[in-house]
Amino acid sequence: MRTMSRRSMLAGTTITGGTALAGLNQPARAAVADTVTLSPIPLPLPIGQPERLARLATARALMQRHGIGAIVVEPGASLDYFTGVQWWRSERLTAAVIPVHGDPIVVTPFFERPSIAESLAIPAEIRTWNEDEEPLKLVADFLRERGLAGEPIGIEETNRYFIVDRLRLHLPVARIVSANSVVRGCRMHKTVAELACMQAASDITVAAFRHVAPLVKAGMTRDDLDAMIGATTRAMGGAYDGGLVLVGEATAYPHGSHKPQIVARGSNILFDCGCAVHGYQSDISRSFVWGADPTPDQRKVWDQVARGQQIANAAAKVGAPAGSVDDAVRAAYTSWGYGPGYKLPGLSHRTGHGIGMEGHEPVNLVHGEMTKLDVGMCFSDEPGIYIPGKFGIRLEDCFHITEAGPRFFSEPPRSIDQPV
Asked: How far apart are CA 84 and CA 106, in angstroms?
């Protein structure tokens, strides 16, 4: 089920239907229509059952290491990651229970069983409950059957409170603990197959930017530009749920403004968009000046952000604390007269975030984060500089950690004159 993203809420309505397209400027409508001529980018295979079974084996090993008897996973990226089930959260519980030994179960409403079975990609029993029954009792009964009632039960950090509350009601002896050591321990380290999906998503987003940037015209709105990027992304094979497009002064605020934003000569423009391939995300930002030469200030700040990206990349070594990447960038910015710390003008947000099946996932490249960087971890590298009342520059490319150091999925732009 498609949901409005954080970016869509802040940047405007995501445009997908004919009625919404009617609200676009004519050049934007024409650009969207022309995307039917684009060829899709070849995509890697989706994640198969062998890889999901390997994930379950890793999860069980981590449960044993941390003394956890089972974990409970609600719909979302983690449920898809472990089971292949793609579902949404509602007041009717659907969840997987993964025990330290043996096959998992999926608990779901009776009438949802056929739909759940369609995407279930691992050996697992589907246990159903009717509308007058309590689904957490099914979870409690399963834990008793497996002899796990007295063992610590891991709850994923995004699970809703009612799950814990009602599980305790039906299993008073339950010892609830965080499942982070298991879920993060699996999802933070991407495999070759996962990296291939992320690479394809990145390639599509870069190609969309390159296609759309020359089509920008005076008078276009951020909705025009987002629609063009979205249509191009979909034509090339990526799933798109809305991007963040900012124009003019709005670029000085990381997540933009609701004020009208119209492209004019000399406008500072920010594209911050991504897509998904088989559920794996890209997240790329490009900043450029439309229709005029950049001012000396725009050029200087753009060059400083580009340098900030390289400083972050150089600091992202295997074994380094994630927070040290942010510290390295912030130290350079302070020496250039920004900040200090998170003060403006300067860099008011973290240098980067984890990325994978979610656009933002643990852990972050932020001051104080002590998690050690390791092979297979993936992050954004986006040390923007924002000058309130004037403009902001953000360049964002994602990378993954290899034995030899970080490797970008997308090549950072070379100059403000060649921004995409």
From this structure: 11
**Farthest CA pair distance, the chain:** 70
- The CA-based angle 61-63-67, given to 5 degrees, is 125
Beta strand 70-73 with 152-155 is parallel
| Structure token digits, residue 28 | 């934007």
287: β partners: 270
Q: Across the beta sheet with 95-99, what order do the strands follow? A: 125-129, 105-109, 95-99, 70-73, 152-155, 175-178
pTM, entire model: 0.94
Residue the block writes with tokens 């990526």:
238
Tokens linked to 125: 């029993």
Tens of pLDDT along the chain (420 residues)? 223 344 443 444 444 444 467 789 999 999 999 999 999 999 999 999 999 999 999 999 999 999 999 999 999 999 999 999 999 999 999 999 999 999 999 999 999 999 999 999 999 999 999 999 999 999 999 999 999 999 999 999 999 999 999 999 999 999 999 999 999 999 999 999 999 999 999 999 999 999 999 999 999 999 999 999 999 999 999 999 999 999 999 999 999 999 999 999 999 999 999 999 999 999 999 999 999 999 999 999 999 999 999 999 999 999 999 999 999 999 999 999 999 999 999 999 999 999 999 999 999 999 999 999 999 999 999 999 999 999 999 999 999 999 999 999 999 999 999 999
Q: Is the peptide bond before 363 cis (omega within 30 degrees of 0)?
A: yes
Sign, CA torsion 175/180/181/182 = positive
Contacting residues for 63 by C-beta, under 8 A, at least 6 apart: 69, 70, 71, 100, 154, 182
The closest of 281, 324, 332 to 306, measured between CA atoms, is 332
Nearest 5°: CA angle at 4, between 363 and 87?
A: 75
Residue 8, CA distances (Å) to 43, 222, 224, 249, 393 in order: 26, 11, 13, 19, 20
Burial bucket for residue 123 (CB in 10 Å: 0-12, 13-18, 19+): exposed
3-state secondary structure of 386: strand
DSSP 237-267: T-B----EEEEGGGGGSTT--SS--B--TTE
